[in-house]
């Protein structure tokens, strides 16, 4: 079955068992490699392939806010892995199918009131998504069509290029401190790489969510365009990136990004343990409780 | 006595003996922690506490130019330590009580014609001030109301945010090369962190002192305001920083700044020895002599 | 003979034998150090000394495009070494004597169809040129009067200051990916140092050649001036740099640049082997073949 092709051990481990994504295999099974349109995707990740262009659009659909739950992360990883292993595709565009929100980031319900083993499994999946996107051999363009805080911002920052819709509500940033939590060092590293040390230092401490004009000025996104042109702009930018020979571009991307990824790779387990220890603290669980109650009241 | 509460060994070592700051305990002794207004301060460091806001203003008064002499450094360290150890305070504003000058930086008289032991003690205090300000758990805002060269610039760069008075005479920068001396690696690291590698490389070699408009453009300060609004702006900015939960902000600040501080912490003694060796050279002592003579003639 | 004065072992090794630069000693042999005008230079490197100012202009003349062939690199290294060892000179201006081109960069003919030993010798010379220019005790100003791709850009980036002629044809950048090859890590490091991580990441992958206005904006050059003012501007800038005491400026330059140079110095041989292995691949030789054929057709 197409879904299982090329899955690496880690992704398999994250699924454990497959049944966790029961409806994941919505698409037609592929008859083989290179035979035209393939239907990828899963309940939460719509993949619209354009084999002629070598491009696939990955639409995140985990309503209401594309929270990066363990299941959703797992589906994203599977989709990414399939696209990476399919020679048809040279680039992907990541965008949202949920109106007004790109992704709200990590799912607090995966860390609130959960046992350490679950938190560890979850954090491993978060790490994996970052490493997969940040080091992807594919060109990855973010078509950011909604607000993009915290983990949603990290996902954006891990793309090769970011196009943000010019809607003042669509702020982007690592706003962890506002929730009383801390961005991990690799979130910080990626932000420093993108907007520089000083801007990152200030933005991280103050939990800045940059509206489009500020986002462009500080460099946390590369381009701001009218909302109805986000997808078409992402496609044009993609064409520019695909004009470069894959091999040279991939090696160059690796040259630039590997040292940052290596900092996590060299201490993945310690980073997981740190996360579990931190999130298990009473004070942090309490902060999460307060925040989740506020969210409930907002909805109610 | 309030002054001795919570002093860490290093600061004690720097004082050795206490008598060095004979008039340091000007304030009323505090009756205990959290019991309202405390009077800190020393002859050279005026502390104006605003307990309601959780903010203290530290005014440097070491006329004529707030040279960072060993005594003055020691008083600054004591005041910082006291404020850090007093739960009343969450932020401090560092500013000058000397008209037209924030701080002229290191006191050349502490390195000219002095024996190695004195130079070593002095350098340790310089390191300590930087580490204390740069890693402070308090929010530290610089209200830069005067020229701020060399060590004065370092002090500014170590704050969390810099507000500079818009007076063309109030230049700021690491201008050590103009004196024939070299900024230590950690001065360089902090400048690179703040304005980027290329701008720092050029500014350090040419000993740039940036007037306000250039300072803002290159990013060595965060904001330039009319001279009579420096203090009020610093207070508004402080409110913005204090809106963030302390714990999350402090851990995030540490996440961003610790690696830079660690570079010095891992080689503090070697750095002291380097300084002593460098400053003891005949050629450097001669440069200092020439410069100090020039200063005398200016005054004369 | 003037030419042999002060040559370090490596440069000698690169020459092996001297006969490689048969006409190198065009100038009058110097009668001694400090005795007025000296005539340096070689067939491909014109040196115009201005002893009164302490400045020499080095004009690259390896027509048609100042390709950095092994012979040309060797002559550049000899000229640099002579100027560095002559107390008369405190600064050099590097510029081109070939109309419209600063330098086309590395000479592909030194890596296409060559045996590994030759490729290794060539790469060692490329490394040496970079280290020599990047860490030079002299002030090095680039008067970039023509297009400056790939290795030509690296040479520019290794200067202390870059003045680019305002001609839309005179683009500058590390465009290796366009040729299907990869910039080495130290090219990348120097670009990151100059324009920041994010801009470098994008420029390197897309092989950007920045026209003057973009070059100035991204910071890959420091100044853009009308074409007929490039040399005079370089001279004015030089005066500014020479106003700084040499000793302090040199130590500060070293402080800022040594860590970057050390990354190569710590693995020079491995870097040579990497290059030889990479360039010897069939796929890369094929890419070079295609590119060289295109160049031939253009000329034909």
UniProtKB/TrEMBL annotation, chains A, B, C:
Compartments reported by the entry: Mitochondrion matrix
Main location: mitochondrion
Pathway: Lipid metabolism; fatty acid beta-oxidation
GO cellular component term, pick one: mitochondrial matrix
GO molecular function terms noted in the UniProt entry: delta(3)-delta(2)-enoyl-CoA isomerase activity
Reactions this protein catalyses: (2E)-tetradecenoyl-CoA = (3Z)-tetradecenoyl-CoA; (3Z)-dodecenoyl-CoA = (2E)-dodecenoyl-CoA; a (3E)-enoyl-CoA = a 4-saturated (2E)-enoyl-CoA; (3Z)-decenoyl-CoA = (2E)-decenoyl-CoA
Pfam families for this protein: ECH_1 (PF00378)
Signal peptide: none
Source superkingdom: Eukaryota
EC number: 5.3.3.8
InterPro entries attached to this UniProt entry: ClpP/crotonase-like_dom_sf (IPR029045), Enoyl-CoA_hyd/isom_CS (IPR018376), Enoyl-CoA_hydra/iso (IPR001753)
Assembly notes: Homotrimer.
Record function comment: Key enzyme of fatty acid beta-oxidation. Able to isomerize both 3-cis (3Z) and 3-trans (3E) double bonds into the 2-trans (2E) form in a range of enoyl-CoA species, with a preference for (3Z)-enoyl-CoAs over (3E)-enoyl-CoAs. The catalytic efficiency of this enzyme is not affected by the fatty acyl chain length.
Protein name: Enoyl-CoA delta isomerase 1, mitochondrial
Lineage: Eukaryota, Metazoa, Chordata, Craniata, Vertebrata
